[in-house]
Amino acid sequence: MANTSDIRKGLCIKYNHDIFKIIEFLHVKPGKGPAFVRTKLKSVTTGKVIDNTFSAGHKIEDVRVETHKFQYLYSEGSTYHFMNTDDYSQIQLQVEALDTPELLKEGEIVTILINTEDNMPLSVEMPVHVILEIVKTEPGVKGNTATNATKPAIVETGASINVPLFINEGDKIRIDTDKGNYQERIKE
């Protein structure tokens, strides 16, 4: 058993007869009244995201998890196939277990959280950033750079990302997987 002071991003807890992963949290200490923790929880079984508030000191039942490195192989519809990099065993996960499947490139190494009680995979943690190639974007118009203007671009995985006007087709860019934002252009 843990309490609200142990809450952190990525912690898996049992709540309402389901297992949830904490994706956001905020400790709040108002000037009047008791402290509390505002959380955003994502169900690892359904992918549904809920908001919940725990009072300070509230007991929560955490789930013991192990992390393993897996390589993303391919997807078939809503099923994603991964291979363990240690023993080469393969597992299949539904799209709900992934936070940003649209940024997942074949061969990418991810961390999969596995429940130690029943050895079932809970969720997939993406790397902090991924490097993807731009496959389609409009050319930037010269003189249109007075402000931080952006344009939509399609990357090799099919995701649409807003990028600065100087980015062209064929450029490789670094994308923050947490927010899905452009970070920088990669020079080769």
Describe this protein's structure:
The strands form 3 sheets. A 6-stranded antiparallel sheet has the order 1-6-2-3-4-5, with no helix packed on it. The relative contact order is 0.14. The protein is flat. Helices cover 0% and strands 54% of the residues. Strand 8 (79-84) and strand 9 (90-94) form a beta hairpin. The chain folds into 3 domains: 2-62, Roll (SH3 type barrels), CATH 2.30.30; 65-125, OB fold (Dihydrolipoamide Acetyltransferase, E2P), CATH 2.40.50; 129-186, Nucleic acid-binding proteins (OB fold (Dihydrolipoamide Acetyltransferase, E2P), Beta Barrel). By secondary structure, the chain is mainly beta. The mean pLDDT is 85. The chain has no helices and 16 strands.
The run of helices and strands is: EEEEEEEEEEEEEEEE
- The proportion of residues in beta strands is over 45%
Radius of gyration: 20 Å
Physical arrangement of strands within the biggest beta sheet = 1-6-2-3-4-5
The total beta strand count reads 16
Q: Helical proportion? A: under 10%
Biggest sheet statistics: 6 strands, antiparallel
Q: Regarding CATH, which class of the largest domain?
A: Mainly Beta
Give the low-confidence spans.
none
User: What is the mean pLDDT?
Assistant: 85
What's the CATH topology name of the largest domain?
A: SH3 type barrels
Shape: flat
Question: Which oligomerization state do the chains in this entry correspond to?
Answer: single chain
Class computed from helices, strands and strand pairing: mainly beta
Number of helices: 0
CATH architecture of the largest domain: Roll
What number of domains?
Answer: 3
Distance between the termini: 49 Å
